[in-house]
From TrEMBL, chain A:
<protein>
    <submittedName>
        <fullName>Na(+)/H(+) antiporter subunit C</fullName>
    </submittedName>
</protein>
<keyword id="KW-1003">Cell membrane</keyword>
<feature type="transmembrane region" description="Helical">
    <location>
        <begin position="6"/>
        <end position="21"/>
    </location>
</feature>
<dbReference type="InterPro" id="IPR050601">
    <property type="entry name" value="CPA3_antiporter_subunitC"/>
</dbReference>
<comment type="similarity">
    <text>Belongs to the CPA3 antiporters (TC 2.A.63) subunit C family.</text>
</comment>
<keyword id="KW-1133">Transmembrane helix</keyword>
<dbReference type="Pfam" id="PF00420">
    <property type="entry name" value="Oxidored_q2"/>
</dbReference>
<dbReference type="InterPro" id="IPR039428">
    <property type="entry name" value="NUOK/Mnh_C1-like"/>
</dbReference>
<feature type="transmembrane region" description="Helical">
    <location>
        <begin position="28"/>
        <end position="47"/>
    </location>
</feature>
Automatic annotation (TrEMBL), chain B:
<dbReference type="Pfam" id="PF20501">
    <property type="entry name" value="MbhE"/>
</dbReference>
<dbReference type="InterPro" id="IPR001750">
    <property type="entry name" value="ND/Mrp_TM"/>
</dbReference>
<comment type="similarity">
    <text>Belongs to the CPA3 antiporters (TC 2.A.63) subunit A family.</text>
</comment>
<dbReference type="Pfam" id="PF13244">
    <property type="entry name" value="MbhD"/>
</dbReference>
<feature type="transmembrane region" description="Helical">
    <location>
        <begin position="355"/>
        <end position="379"/>
    </location>
</feature>
<keyword id="KW-0915">Sodium</keyword>
<feature type="transmembrane region" description="Helical">
    <location>
        <begin position="507"/>
        <end position="526"/>
    </location>
</feature>
<feature type="transmembrane region" description="Helical">
    <location>
        <begin position="106"/>
        <end position="123"/>
    </location>
</feature>
<dbReference type="InterPro" id="IPR001516">
    <property type="entry name" value="Proton_antipo_N"/>
</dbReference>
């Protein structure tokens, strides 16, 4: 199963990067969202899947799943939420002020 | 001594405040006090009973970098030059620089230079020496570019910076080599263990790097080209940095390492060749110049070459002559620069073709110039110090101590002739400088200003220097045993008997050489106009400057082309380049090290629910890339997120599942709030090649991550630290939910910073929403 999950994470990265390389801001933000999903799955897969009980101490259970990746992912989820929200608002302002969300048109004028 | 070195730096901090009142009191007065104090502090060391002094202050003891100040005869000579000439130049600058100039800047740079130069000659620690060394380059750059509105100033400043810093880095290389070989950072300790360096296989490299540093700094051929352009600096700076002190830092370095290096035959060959060639080329080129300061610049180059050559000879007489000439050169060249500054100041031009006949207008200046330039020429008169060191040069060139075989044998036979040749041209440019300016027909009406004698304040400093010329000339024993002999001793590394300096030795070969110089020099000086076309053949079109310009020009152009090639302002392109680089490096590394491993022994079972969720996620993820509908894209992204939380449930991560569920809901809501304000998604209109590239990069990246994930799962090199958290969660953290305990207890600070990040994001978002649209007309 771990290998399948690894492939799934890879596909999430693929689609994420593909969206990231597009021109429109909305697609780029969707791309970052997909990449962070992929990263979470990636971290989870590096450990062992489905061995032992959920990591909540309970009488009589000796074997728990690895709690460390979960702690990492929990942090990451929250951070990526913050990043996504910031990007969204940034895109909103950029589109509002410049009248476009096309990255090619948002280039500076120095390069013309 | 630490105080002495730091004093200029400390005052430099206060200069900007002092220069606020520059209308009332010229800040130069304060600045003059500093070198005067330092001079008085050090001058008490002069005397026949001089003993080297060492003072140590720890700076970065863990790296072996300490401030160790070592005052021996050589350092003393330089310290007195730096502070003595420094005081005179600072005083001279009060009258030279008008109050409307940016005096604050000038004196800050000036003091920084003085402090660093003192540091160079007093440091015993090689890294401290190197730091001070680079500081002198930096302050020289700033001072040359002082009139930075002039294009020539900026050009000259950049040139000197590039060349001297290039040499500085070579020097650093040599110093690192030596300190690694001898396992010390102290110059004295290195010299004590010189065999370690001399017998090392790296010795040729060390020698060439060290000499590269010295030659660039001391403007030796072919690195001399920066010095004439450095003449764009204000004249006090030229007199101080580019004649008396900074350009002698390279000489100092060679002299300092002489006890170690002079036993090498290569040292003799390289240093004497460079010195002799520089002497001849510099004096030959000086006659061609039309700018007074240009003549002096090339003259400085040639005099530095002469000192360098004597250090290369390495005999007792030569070393003695070298240190003696360091002092003499500072006196006569310093005063000549000041004379040039006066002429520039009083007539408005430094072009020797427009000058002439100024003797009647500036009689005092002319008198000073007579003594200084005749001393420079080495005219055999008993009251000119230049003659004594010039004669020592001739004498030492006749008594070289090197193996007579091979190239050094050839060197020995030609050096005396080259010495005479270079000195003939030295005589010619000295006469050219004096007679071209002060004698001949006056062209007063063509001058920008009506010439008159300089104010007394400007004359004081060159007067003192010329007095030095005459006093040393008349009474050489005053500086001989008490001062010069100690310096020579430090260079030679062994005790020297005091050399007896007298004017008249009888008709001996050196005197004949001097006479030859005078006779041929006089002939060439008189017939100068007749033979100047020779410059059309040599150097003719050959120009080191053109080579330098071409090099700088090409570097700028090609780096510009390369940078413009990838920095075209398109962020998409940057991301593509970054990702492609990551892919290439990672795959190459994986292939080279065999990093990709698959271990199927430790896998969990495949179950239907997981497969179902995974397939849904794959379809949804691909959907985001294909759809052109905003709402659809957002909702499909939501599907991926919810699928992920399903997986978290299946993989027994309840906290993750909950958090993911909430965050995904809020994110989708946010997307739906914002998308309305964003333009509709358009069909992808990128060119086909870019689209193909995008697919390749993204598939490659996905494949890379998959491979890394599989390898990471398959190879466990260390035990996981997770067991620690499982065991201690309740004992240390007092909680049953291990993930929560990790977050709020074991890694509590991380979580705190995470909250900070969120807080910053929240503030930024608030700010962005409240931000008013800028008015169009602004």
């Amino acid at each position: 199963m771990e290998f399948i999950m690894a492939v799934l994470a890879g596909i999430l990265f693929t689609t994420g990067v593909y969206n990231l390389l597009q021109k429109q801001l909305l697609r780029i933000i969707i791309g970052t969202g997909l990449i962070s999903h992929g990263a979470h799955l990636f971290i989870l897969t590096m450990g062992e899947l489905k061995r032992g009980a959920p990591p909540v101490l309970t009488e009589g259970i000796e074997k728990y799943t690895d709690p460390l990746p979960q702690a990492l992912i929990l942090t990451s989820i929250v951070i990526s939420f913050g990043v996504t929200s910031l990007l969204l608002v940034l895109a909103y302002r950029a589109a509002k002020i410049n009248g476009t969300d096309n990255m090619e048109q948002l280039r500076g004028n120095d390069y013309e | 001594m630490l105080v002495a070195v730091l004093l200029p730096f400390i005052l430099a901090v206060f200069i900007p405040f002092l220069s606020r009142w520059k209308e009332k009191l010229h800040p130069g007065f304060f600045v003059t006090l500093v070198p005067v104090v330092i001079f008085i502090y050090f001058v008490r060391h002069i005397g026949s009973g001089f003993e080297p002094v060492v003072q140590e202050y720890s700076w970065i003891p863990s790296l072996g970098i300490n401030m160790v100040f070592h005052l021996d005869g050589l350092s003393l000579l330089f310290v007195l030059l730096i502070s003595g000439i420094g005081a005179l130049v600072a005083f001279y600058s009060i009258y030279y620089l008008h109050k409307s100039e940016q005096l604050g800047h000038f004196y800050v740079y000036f003091l920084i230079f003085m402090g660093s130069m003192l540091g160079v000659v007093l440091s015993d620690n090689v890294f401290a020496l190197y730091s001070f060394w680079e500081f002198t380059s930096l302050s020289s750059f700033l001072l040359i570019g002082f009139w930075n509105y002039k294009q020539e100033s900026r050009y000259g400043a950049l040139k000197s910076m590039l060349i001297t810093v290039f040499g500085g880095l070579s020097l650093l290389g040599a110093l690192i080599f030596m300190s690694e070989l001898t396992n010390t950072t102290s110059i004295r300790a290195m010299i004590d263990q010189q065999q370690l360096v001399l017998n090392s296989e790296y010795f040729p490299l060390i020698l060439s790097l060290l000499l590269l540093g010295a030659f660039t700094k001391s403007a030796q051929f072919p690195f001399h080209i920066w010095l004439p352009d450095a003449m764009e600096a204000p004249t006090p700076v030229s007199a101080y940095l580019h004649s008396a002190t900074m350009v002698k830092a390279g000489i100092y370095l060679v002299a300092r390492y002489s006890p170690m290096l002079s036993s090498s035959e290569w040292f003799f060959i390289i240093v004497s060749t460079a010195g002799i060639v520089t002497l001849c080329w510099g004096s030959y080129m000086a006659v061609r110049q039309t700018d007074l300061k240009g003549i002096l610049a090339f003259s400085t180059i040639s005099q530095l070459g002469m000192i360098m050559a004597m250090l290369g000879f390495g005999t007792k007489a030569a070393v003695f002559g070298a240190v003696f000439h360091i002092l003499n050169h500072a006196t006569f060249k310093g005063s000549l620069f000041m004379v040039a500054g006066i002429i520039d100041h009083e007539t408005g031009t430094r072009d020797i073709r427009r000058l002439g006949g100024l003797m009647t207008y500036l009689p005092i200046t002319a008198t000073l110039a007579v003594f200084a330039s005749f001393s420079m020429a080495g005219v055999p008169l008993p009251f000119l110090n230049g003659f004594y060191s010039k004669e020592m040069f001739f004498e030492s060139s006749l008594h070289l101590e090197a193996s007579a075989a091979g190239f050094s044998g050839f060197m020995m036979s030609v050096i005396p002739y080259l010495a005479v040749l270079g000195s003939i041209f030295t005589f010619v440019y000295s006469m050219y400088f004096f007679f071209g300016t002060f004698r001949g027909r006056a062209k007063i009406d063509q001058l920008p200003k009506k010439p008159h004698e300089a104010p007394i304040g400007m004359l004081v400093s060159p007067m003192i220097l010329v007095a030095g010329v005459i006093i040393i000339g008349l009474f050489p024993f005053l500086v001989n045993g008490s001062f010069i002999a100690h310096a020579a001793e430090a260079v030679k590394g062994t005790a020297l008997e005091e050399k007896h300096i007298t004017f008249w030795h009888g008709i001996i070969p050196p005197f004949v050489m001097s006479l030859t110089v005078v006779v041929f020099g006089a002939i060439l000086a008189i017939s100068r106009k007749g033979w100047t076309p020779v410059y059309n053949f040599l150097p003719g079109r050959l120009s080191l400057n053109k080579f330098y310009d071409g090099l700088v020009d090409r570097t700028e152009r090609y780096s510009g082309v390369i940078t413009k090639g990838y920095m075209n302002g398109s962020l998409g392109r940057y991301v593509r380049l970054i990702l492609a680089a990551i892919l290439i490096v990672s795959f190459a590394f994986m292939a080279l090290t065999g990093g990709f491993t698959v271990d199927t022994s430790n896998l969990s079972r495949i179950t239907a629910p997981e497969i179902a969720v995974a397939v849904t996620m794959v379809l949804a993820a691909i959907g985001t890339a294909l759809t052109n509908n905003r709402i659809a894209a957002i909702l499909i992204l939501g599907v991926v997120g919810y699928g992920l939380s399903m997986l978290f449930v299946l993989y027994r991560a309840p906290d993750l599942a909950l958090t993911q569920l909430i965050v995904e809901t809020v994110t989708v809501a946010l997307f739906l709030l914002v998308f309305y304000h964003l333009p509709k998604l358009k069909k992808k209109d990128q060119p086909m090649s870019t689209q193909v590239l995008n697919v390749i990069i993204s598939v490659g990246f996905g494949a890379l991550m998959t491979m890394v994930a599989i390898s990471a799962h398959s190879s466990k090199w260390f035990d996981s630290i997770s067991e620690y958290f499982v065991k201690n969660s309740y004992k240390l953290g007092g909680g049953d939910n291990i993930v929560n305990v990790i977050l709020v207890d074991f890694r509590g600070l991380d979580t705190l910073f995470e909250i900070v990040v969120l807080g910053i994001a929240a503030m930024a978002i608030y700010g962005l929403i409240r931000l008013k649209k800028p008015k169009e007309d602004e």
